[in-house]
Amino acid sequence: MKNILISEIIKLVNCTKNMHIGDQSIVNGTGWHLYRGEYKIHTHSSEFYILYFDSAATTLNISAAKQYLSYNPKIDRKKVHVIFAASISSLQTLQEFKRDVGGYWEAKEYVFSLMRSELEDYRNHILDLMPEDYVEPPIGTPVGIPFTNLNPLLSFFDDDSKGRLGVVLAEPGQGKTYQARYLCAILAKKGNYPVFVSSEQWKTMSVSDLSSIWKTISHSFRFVGSPIDWIDGNEDFVIKLAIKAGLFQIIFDGFDEYMSIISRDSDVREVISNLLDSVENEGSKIIVTSREAFWKAEVGDSLSGDNQCSNIFMYSINPFDRNSMRKYYKKKFGSEKEIEVAMGIFNMLEKFNDVFIGRGFVMYLIAELVKKGTYDFIDIAGHAHGGIIRWLFEALCEREIGRQGLKF
Predict the structure, then answer these.
(1) N or C: which terminal CB in the chain sees fewer CB atoms within 10 Å?
(2) For the segment 287-324, what is each residue's pLDDT rounded down to a tens digit?
(3) Strands (E), 54-209
(4) Residues 268, 195, 153, 359: what is their CA dihedral angle, to the nearest 10 degrees?
């Protein structure tokens, strides 16, 4: 995790509007700095202090700061917020501050404290994203990348190494959104704060705002009713600092759809380069999903000569196989009869095109058909009447009408 600088903390505090800290410290010591701040609520204001210890601070430096406070009784220690670099958190002399100061935080914890209520509320919304009846799809992984989870995309986030950009490719209807929602819910369940970006969110944004990927990401909070109002105008800085503090993981679903909207103003390679800058500078862990055809056509090998390309890791969601289908229907249905009916329909459709029929949305459509009990037009015993393919095309059309909000 990257070190958070006192200049970044000051800028973040000043973004909140109801607090202000001067850019210049009132006292400087070796390894420590004292700043004066002010709470401002309507016409009322009150002062506070930030005592910051950087990663080079030693026990002697910390003792010198304590001595300074002791010799200056005008500084109320209950108004002093002690903030320190993670690398010195184990120093006993530092921990002694806990007894009598107004606040005591590691730098990343202080960043979190400024947006705690909004993030906790947001995480509750993310927990609701968990898909019902989830089964793991077959996922193709980058060569040489180890993974310890059944789902390698979870290992992508569990790994504490440097930042990286994961690109998850799949054909339409293969389950990109299904997978993205699952990842977000699992990360939230583990106590993380995954930021889920999807097409239904950016439909409410103007194209000019969409052209900033950081505004697009920050809009995710507003969309679910947990806005961090004070970051408006500072989205780039605040989101990146929260990533640097290890708070956010970004899961950007439908990157290809997003690019189709902003393509007049932005080049796909420029947007990817922007994300890769954050991967390198803030240690971001970001996953984007995209249709395979779009990625090959618009990106392809165009980044292969870029030094940042080593931070891109390619994954693929492959068609569900027979075993995955059966697991899904076991979760979906209570009776063995319904499971066998669903598998019978799958077996029939598989004869036409096993790759296409292995897509996630077909698995779902079969389940809906069985649930409704309106499958009399199908000869489950083995031979499909012409109705089976007609049904599939009609179901696909109905699905797209619903997704696109089309009216006739």
Answers:
(1) C
(2) 999 999 999 988 877 665 555 678 899 999 999 988 88
(3) 80-84, 103-106, 139-140, 164-170, 193-197
(4) -70
Q: Which of 176, 175, 180 is nearest to 324 (CA)?
A: 175
DSSP 3-state of 349: helix
Q: Which of 39, 133, 147 is nearest to 326 (CA)?
A: 133
Q: How far apart are CA 315 and CA 355, in angstroms?
A: 18
CA distance 322 to 325: 5
Cα angle 217-218-223, degrees, rounded to a multiple of 5? 95
Helices (H), 71-115: 92-95, 107-113
Distance CA 207, CA 372 (A): 41
Reported as a pLDDT band with limits 50, 70 and 90, residue 76 is very high
pLDDT tens, residue by residue, 335-384:
899 999 889 888 888 877 777 888 888 888 888 888 877 666 555 444 44
**Residue-wise burial string across 93-107, b where 16 or more C-beta atoms lie within 10 A, e elsewhere:** bbeebeeebebbbbb
Provide the strand spans (E) within 189-284. 193-197, 248-252
What torsion, rounded to 10 degrees, do the Cα atoms 210, 212, 217, 219 define?
Answer: -50
* Alpha carbons 201 and 366: distance in angstroms, whole number: 28
- Are 282 and 108 within 8 A, CB to CB? no
- Whether the CB-CB separation of 48 and 102 falls below 8 Å is answered with yes
Helix (H) or strand (E) holding 51: strand 44-53
Beta partners for residue 50, in sequence order: 35, 81
Which of 349, 289, 356 lies closest to 318 in space, CA to CA?
A: 356
Kindly tell me if the per-residue pLDDT of 1 is higher than 70: no
CB of 317 closer than 8 Å to CB of 152: no
Could you tell me which of 35, 28, 71 has the C-alpha nearest to residue 51? 35
Residues 184 and 251 sit within 8 Å (Cβ to Cβ): yes
From CA 254, how far away is CA 257, in angstroms rounded?
5
